[in-house]
């Protein structure tokens, strides 16, 4: 398997840059209606390919993006996590985002990856704060944010849907 550059490592995970060969594994996540039920819709393969390409472009332009999440024990790509710039009420804010393949839910993997990305955002990207845009009904994502020291900062509309904007400031994370 061709691999992108490893950016971060945790006890159970490698976070690395996406490569074109990740498309099939990425589709298992982004094209799954249950995984994507809090988004406007699940993606199709073309939209997932565009999503992957956008993240590769972010690496070049911004030095970060969403990274592939590989399980160390198998080398399998099971999700993504990272920091992207998102428009929130007219401001470009650093967002900590994550997606995890459904059968991997409930094992603390998203929290582990998000914690590593949060710390990377403060230490390497020099962010003063990070946000996560989360639909109010997305209890699993809210728990990940809360485990990483985030609290609800405000409400907003994003992609035509109501979102809570979670926020954590440098030095105030757990």
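Q: What amino acid sequence fits the structure above?
A:
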């Amino acid at each position: 398997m061709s691999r992108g550059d490893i950016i971060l490592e945790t006890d159970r995970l490698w976070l690395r840059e996406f490569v074109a060969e990740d498309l099939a594994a990425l589709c298992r996540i982004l094209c799954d209606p249950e995984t994507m039920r809090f988004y406007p819709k699940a993606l199709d393969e073309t939209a997932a390919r565009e999503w992957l390409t956008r993240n590769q472009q972010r690496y070049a332009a911004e030095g970060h993006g969403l990274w592939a999440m590989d399980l160390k024990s198998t080398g399998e790509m099971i999700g993504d996590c990272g920091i992207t710039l998102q428009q929130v009420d007219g401001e470009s804010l650093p967002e900590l985002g994550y997606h995890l393949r459904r059968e991997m839910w409930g094992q603390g993997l998203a929290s582990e990856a998000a914690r590593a990305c949060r710390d990377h955002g403060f230490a390497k990207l020099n962010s003063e704060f990070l946000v996560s845009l989360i639909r109010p009904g997305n209890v699993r994502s809210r728990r990940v944010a809360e485990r990483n020291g985030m609290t609800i900062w405000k409400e907003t509309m994003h992609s035509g849907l109501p979102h809570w904007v979670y926020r954590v400031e440098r030095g105030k994370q757990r």
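Q: And what stands out in the fold?
A: The longest strand covers residues 77-88.
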